[in-house]
């Protein structure tokens, strides 16, 4: 029995992920004595950053309410072209905020 550890850097898999939130890893090998091929697949779900929402003023019916949205980009690439959408009771369609 032997344990092998491999590290896959974001630079290697990042360009291939696209809009997917998972990676499919496959390990395969051959048993030398028998020639038998063994393989195993594992689907790994990537974690998305957690959003924190904070009201910056009291919420009053009929008035705008400022909300602070905080999240941390865990990737080494600069975030660009992102859009946040705010939904809630009384909002007829999601309100987009271009970042």
Automatic annotation (TrEMBL):
Keywords: Transferase. Signal peptide: none annotated. One of its GO terms (molecular function) is protein-glutamine gamma-glutamyltransferase activity. The keyword Transferase applies. It comes from the Eukaryota. InterPro entries: Ig-like_fold, Transglutaminase, Transglutaminase_C_sf. PANTHER family: PROTEIN-GLUTAMINE GAMMA-GLUTAMYLTRANSFERASE, PROTEIN-GLUTAMINE GAMMA-GLUTAMYLTRANSFERASE K. This is TGM1 glutamyltransferase.
């Amino acid at each position: 029995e032997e344990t092998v550890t491999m590290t896959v850097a974001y630079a290697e898999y990042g360009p291939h992920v696209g809009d997917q939130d998972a990676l499919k890893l496959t390990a395969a090998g051959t048993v030398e004595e028998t020639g038998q091929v063994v393989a195993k697949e594992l689907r790994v779900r990537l974690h998305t950053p957690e959003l924190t929402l904070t009201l910056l003023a009291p919420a009053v019916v009929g008035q705008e309410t400022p909300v602070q949205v905080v999240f941390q980009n865990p990737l080494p690439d600069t975030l660009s072209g992102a859009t946040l959408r705010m939904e809630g009771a009384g909002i007829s369609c999601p309100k987009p905020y271009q970042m």
